[in-house]
Fold:
Amino acid sequence: MKILLTVDPEIEVPPANYGGIERIVDGLAKEYAAHGHEVFLLANPASTCKYTNGNYGWPALRSGGAINILKNASMLRRVHNEIRPDIIHSFSRLLYGYPLFLFSNTPFVQSYQRKISARSTSWARKVADGKLRFTSCAAHMISRLPDKSVFTPVFNFTDTDYFFEDATTTRDSLLFLGRIEDIKGTEEAILAAIGAREKIIVAGNIQNGHEQYFERSIKPLLTHPDVSYVGPVNDEQKRRYLQQAKAMLFPIKWEEPFGIVLAEAMACGTPVIAFNRGSVPEVVVDGQTGFVCETLDEMTKRIADLPAINNQEVRRYAVSKFSSKVIAEEYLALFGNMVTIKKASYE
Structure:
């Protein structure tokens, strides 16, 4: 197949610094190419993805705004007409695809990482007339949509070669890894560790607007001898902290779409103890790769049950579910089905 990948124009692929979906797209390009497909990318003009047969740049470097949308929609159509892909896999604005929905028969897969609008997807389906399907990075994202039949849940992946279990490392503390803010449950993670009389390392950045939360709720807890705040971490530091952790605590207080750190932790053989929100019950197998909890008190108590979790089994599960190879093959199966249906319609 000839596959055209698109991603919003703000960040290059692969990202120079932080860029969640941009890393996913770079990894998918690598896997699609490894399966023998021709891959093309439409993204930020500074993108240097090395797994493609060609990289194209958006003319507008902002996703929003009517003029920017018109410019980028026109560019997508020009690239489409030049390379004639068998399928388009879009992580960019759905609106960019409208000219193709109207004037081409190319199958189009729109992948969602955040809240999905039932209205926008419904309108796009009507215009696309059967050639558009959607994916979500977890099933909970589509649970309340009126028509689930055109959605396929496909998890995000992590680099399970980079994130691995280090059997030579002593696991001597718990870990909180994420932005330091209320919805991420930083305070709850610390309180659970203190309640269980365990050491905890807190790693993560404080974004603008959350300084007061840090000062009010987190800073006073840092005086406890079992609590260490190490600040923001890079990938190498993240991997070492995960490899050294007895468990990662994930007491989220919102409907997290996926939570890539869950997959990263489990790839390191590290169990996850998390609140039952968002993707958690889909990603964490209760009693096997960690524990799914309803309350802070339950989380505190489940820490004592960690010896029952097999770290090697946690790692094996992560590789079987969240490796780039597995996730790319799920997408390719969807693509193959759509292309087959398209060909059948012409016979």
